[in-house]
Amino acid sequence: MWFFKRKKRRGIIALIPISGVISMKMVDPYLDVIERAEKSKKVKGVLLNLSSQGGSVTATEVLYMALKRLAEKKPLFAWTTLAASGGYYAACAAEKILAPPSAMVGSIGVIYIKPVIAGIMKKVGVKVEIGKEGQFKDDGLLFTESSPGGKKRMAAINNEVYRGFVKVVSEERGLDKKGARVVATGEIFTAKRGVELGLVDGLVDLRGAKGQITELTKVRPDRVVTFKPRRPLFSSLMGRGVSRWVGGVVREAIEDFYGPEIYYM
Q: Using CA atoms, how far apart are residues 103 and 83, in angstroms rounded to an integer?
């Protein structure tokens, strides 16, 4: 009988699209979006539309922690076309990870990058005087090669970060030590292979992912609403490309790649 049918809830599903290299500059605006979805009484569940090759270790962890807080209060699904390294780390906060068969997932590993320009400086006759207190204080500078002790220290930090990444994947995906070792080689997998390895829960398109979370939450399928960061007035009027040009692409590149950093990439 019709009166025995469970009614669909009047709430909404928040669709949060996140894409690109993960940095604090990218993550910051999304923290407000995630918190808004977490606190809104109208939002009954969240679908993360993720496409990221990873990025900064710290920014990735900040994004993951925000998504994890959300997932503790409301159903969170992730649908992805690219969830590599830090992108996959962030997706692990979700109850389910869904993707089309050819999507790229995995790349579970850590890389430390330090540009060294000492050779170029020598060729052009540029010298830098350094005064320091602390044995390893200048190891992170672009102007000098890292000392053997500094390289050993960074290798230890790299390993610590890597083990933390593997632990998150193991716990969130329910993998034992053997299963975690198989996937934590730094290699990329198709989502189809990811299902076999326990990295992905289902092979669907975005419409299928919406269908799964609306079915779980009993929200009507037409009640999926996109949540995006609020754009600054200047950016809204002038367009993203112009505002980035005004800000200075060269300056941003220097800020992003000035020193050494550990990446989930």
A: 8
- Give the integer Cα–Cα distance in Å for 256 and 265: 15
- Contact at 8 Å (CB) between 17 and 226? yes
β-partners of residue 105 are 83, 189
- 137 noted as active-site residue: yes
pLDDT at 212 over 50: yes
Question: What is the secondary structure of 6-35 as a DSSP string?
Answer: PPPBS-EEEEEEEES-B-HHHHHHHHHHHH
The domains of the chain, with CATH numbers, are: 2-107+185-264 (3.90.226.10)
- In tens, the pLDDT along 55-85 reads 999 999 999 999 999 999 999 999 999 999 9
Residue with the larger pLDDT of the pair 224 and 253: 224
Averaged pLDDT score across all residues of the chain: 84
- Please state, in angstroms and rounded to a whole number, the distance separating the CA atoms of residues 10 and 41: 11
Contact between 74 and 153 under an 8 Å Cβ cutoff? The reply is no
Q: Does 243 qualify as catalytic in the annotation? A: no
Catalytic residue (one of 39, 42, 122, 137): 137
Which is the catalytic residue, given 52, 85, 107, 170?
Answer: 85
Q: What is the pTM of this model?
A: 0.82
224 φ/ψ angles, rounded to the nearest 5 degrees: -100, 120
Type and span of the H or E element at 78: strand 76-84
